[in-house]
Amino acid sequence: MPHPYFDMAKYIYQNENWTDFGWENAVVSAALGEVRLLQGKMLGQIHSLGFSSKEEKNLEMLTLDVLKSSEIEGEKLNYDQVRSSIARRLGINTAGLVSSPRNVDGVVEMMLDATQNYREPLTEERLFGWHAALFPTGYSGMYKIDVARYRSEEMQVVSGAMGKERVHYEAVPAKDVKTEMDNFLFWLNNDNILIDSVLKSAIAHFWFVIIHPFDDGNGRIARAISDMLLARSESSPERFYSLSNQIRQEKNVYYETLKSGQHGDGDITQWLVWFLTCLKHALLETEDSMQHILRKAAFWEKHKETPINERQRLMLNKLFDDFSGKLTSSKWAKIAKTSPDSALRDMKDLMEKGILRQEKERGRNVNYTLQE
User: Fold this and answer.
1) Residues 261, 79: contact at Cβ < 8 Å?
2) What is the pLDDT of residues 162-191, one digit of tens each?
3) Cα–Cα dist 282/278, whole Å
4) pTM for this one?
5) Cα end-to-end distance, the chain, whole Å
6) What is the C-alpha to C-alpha distance for residues 176 and 174, in angstroms, rounded to an integer?
7) Phi, psi (deg, nearest 5) at residue 267
8) CB 347 within 8 A of CB 332
């Protein structure tokens, strides 16, 4: 429950013992229970996948996480560069790898260290390494910033034109950052504090943002900390859903809920419920996509002994993954880089094997689809 003396200050950290957060246990426990149920269901589905399907899904979600966490801060990274950078670091052999610039590699290195080394303590040195990876040139845009050390200046979150700025938040004073971060890291690394790792992920995110210890990159690092603790909650470095992607979709509410907590009285029920609900939505989105992956995996398991040539394999995977519009023999020939006659033979062969069927269409257009 909130403390009675948490009602006079402008910002939560200005109160005595401000990190003794309170919340409505029944409400938060119900939201946490839903998340834990979905996590268990998802992990059960993942175990039924083959190695290559799991590897591809992990690569897809890590890529999405890096892209969307940066996008929340207004920075758009190149999809192919991010995916290639992750694949190289995880030793995944995948077609179409491209080179990636240092700033992309830095974001990837931070995210992979957080998720692959989730068991490791989060130390000041490790945090500084993440920050240095995010800002390899020592600049944020055109501005030189303190890199790999806590900020030495005061921090305000403002909006509006010059001369008409509106202050949304003033972070913890620079002189107090080191002490506040020492307290935060002690709490985060203390295994004797009995709290569910998912709940710890939500609290850590909020606590870190309140302190705002760096000149820039605080949001991305807060989300990396959340991902690290979520990996701990599943005892797995593999990521099969993206919290950052869901936060990006709910960006306005994300900022409003954080703002409410920053000015709050120590009761963080609103933040915890929002975080857990956001996580639930991310898990539900993955559950939908998992059904698609499971159908694809079941198909190839069923047809593992069926003679299928490379063109047919390419096109069948396209139909499962990212094919848009209706399949015609001319599209097949173009995508598979083959002659119209060969395309037609490929398709008729799959129809005889009960894999493709011809859709009933009026006129000259003949379309094909996967047999249910």
Assistant:
1) no
2) 777 778 889 999 999 999 999 999 999 998
3) 6
4) 0.84
5) 54
6) 5
7) -85, 110
8) yes
